[in-house]
Design goal:
- By secondary structure, the chain is an alpha+beta fold.
- It has a four-stranded antiparallel beta sheet, covered by helices on one side.
- Helix 2 packs antiparallel against helix 3.
- The longest helix is centred in the middle third of the chain and has 12 residues.
- It is elongated and about 45 Å long.
Length: 115
């Protein structure tokens, strides 16, 4: 199988469990990796990058989401509906998390397949 990756997509959205996170938008980064079956030439086995980007943008544009895991799961579910996609891994990061000490980001990785 071939793998297609979109890495470091950035969105500004309402995400998190704290009350202020429902009111104040924050940065979220997303990576999508899809494994595609059956590249035999032509367009068979090819995934349109725009479709993957639009899936992520649509999920993050739906309104307040409490958990990074929900973002990853929703993106995986929709990406698996694309023709030829057999497996999806989504990484969702919040780069600005206040935890009382130095931290680059909090990240959740979600993986789904047709199996």
């Amino acid at each position: 199988m071939d793998r297609v990756t979109l890495k470091g997509m950035r969105f500004h959205t309402h995400i998190g469990v704290l009350p202020h996170e429902a009111e104040i938008a924050q940065s979220v980064e997303v990576d999508i990796h899809v494994w595609v079956e059956g590249r035999t030439g032509g367009v068979a086995g090819v995934v349109d990058y725009r479709a993957l980007y639009e899936i992520a943008a649509s999920v993050l544009g739906e309104g307040h989401i409490k958990y990074l895991e929900d973002v990853g799961s929703r993106i995986c579910h929709r990406a698996l509906m694309l023709e030829g996609v057999a497996r999806v891994r989504v990484c969702v990061r919040k780069p600005h998390v206040a935890l009382g000490g130095p931290l680059d980001f909090a990240e959740v990785e979600v993986e789904r397949s047709h199996d």
